[in-house]
Structures are given as structure tokens and as C-alpha cells.
Q: What sequence folds into this?
């Protein structure tokens, strides 16, 4: 069994477990639509345009984080004990009223997906020079913006209850911009590390 299929099997088990009794089934379906498309795209491209084990590990790490968010809805992910262990601050204390799990996942989108995009560009598009380092963050920015537009459309379609849970803005009027900014920051960090290592 290849590393890709091992990752896929492990993710499949987690996905099925988190598909059982999610907090909001409508939100779960909306959140998982893109996850299913991503897995299908990887299955389709793996035989002819494979990526490295590292790239697949990074992609699946991101999908795990996203799948957890879909199970609970991002607003309700119970990360309290972990946040307390890392920061020493109790969730609910001043400045900790917002559930920041969605912010973490947007940052991780840039951190974890930028390198696979870089590798895909280097292997199959071969833009030459520093272009892969620039195009990878550009693709993260573009796909983040596209996701925010899809999120807005889906939230409007789902209505007030499930739509607000899916959107996860938690009253922040700048939520979309902050999410895109964090994804961009994550991609820039990933490309800086990639440039330093390669």
C-alpha cells in the first residue's frame, strides 16, 4: 500500500467517524462538499500527476483540521483545553470570547497547501526562476477569495440558522478579510521555509 493510500484510508476512517452525529447536518454537508471534491481530485490525479509524500501529508493534515471544523461547526470546536495548555489563558477570558479555530484553519490552509501547489507548479508547469514561489501564494490568495465568495453564497442559501453557523463570522464584519489575510500569511511563511530548505 502506498503512503498516499495509507493517508487516504486513515482520513476515510476519521471522516466516517466525524460524519456520525455532527452538530448541524446541513453545515456538515456544506463544509464537506469541497472536502469530497478535493479527495476525488487527488484520486483522479494520483496515477498520472502524483505529488510527493510530503505534499500529500500536508494536504491531508489540512483536510483533517477542516473535517473537525465541519463536524462541530467551526464556531463550536471544543479547543478550550488545548488553548489553555498552549497559552495559559482560559477561553472566555478577556480577548478569548471568540472561537478562533476557523482562524487557525485559514492560517493552516496557507501553511499546509502552499507547498503542494509549489510542487505542482515546479513539476508540471515549470514556470522557471522564482515564479513558483510567487504563484503559489497567489493561488492561495485567489482560492481563499473564491472560498469566501462561495461561503457567502452558501450562507445566504442556507438561511439564518445554518447559514450563520456555516459562515462562522461570529459578529466580525472583517471576518472574510482576516481569513484571507491569514491564509496569505501562512503561504508566505511556507514559501520562505521552502526557499530556505531548497
A:
Amino acid at each position: 500500500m502506498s503512503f498516499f493510500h495509507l493517508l487516504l484510508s486513515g482520513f476515510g476512517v476519521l471522516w466516517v467517524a466525524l460524519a456520525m452525529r455532527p452538530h448541524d447536518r446541513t453545515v456538515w454537508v456544506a463544509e464537506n462538499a469541497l472536502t469530497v471534491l478535493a479527495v476525488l481530485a487527488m484520486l483522479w490525479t494520483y496515477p498520472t500527476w502524483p505529488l510527493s509524500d510530503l505534499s500529500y501529508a500536508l494536504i491531508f493534515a489540512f483536510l483533517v483540521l477542516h473535517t473537525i471544523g465541519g463536524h462541530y461547526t467551526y464556531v463550536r470546536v471544543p479547543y478550550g483545553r488545548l488553548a489553555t495548555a498552549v497559552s495559559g489563558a482560559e477561553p472566555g477570558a478577556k480577548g478569548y470570547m471568540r472561537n478562533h479555530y476557523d482562524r487557525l484553519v485559514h492560517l493552516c490552509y496557507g501553511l499546509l497547501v502552499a507547498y503542494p501547489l509549489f510542487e505542482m507548479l515546479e513539476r508540471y508547469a515549470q514556470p522557471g526562476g522564482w515564479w513558483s514561489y510567487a504563484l503559489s501564494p497567489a493561488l492561495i490568495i485567489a482560492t481563499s477569495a473564491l472560498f469566501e465568495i462561495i461561503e457567502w453564497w452558501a450562507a445566504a442559501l442556507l438561511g439564518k440558522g445554518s447559514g450563520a453557523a456555516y459562515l462562522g463570522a461570529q459578529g466580525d464584519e472583517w471576518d472574510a478579510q482576516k481569513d484571507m489575510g491569514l491564509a496569505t500569511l501562512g503561504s508566505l511563511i511556507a514559501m520562505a521555509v521552502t526557499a530556505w530548505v531548497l
User: Anything to note?
Assistant: Helices lie at 3-19, 25-45, 53-72, 80-87, 101-125, 131-158, 160-167, 175-197. Residues 3-197 form one domain. The chain has one domain: 3-197. The chain has a mean pLDDT of 87.
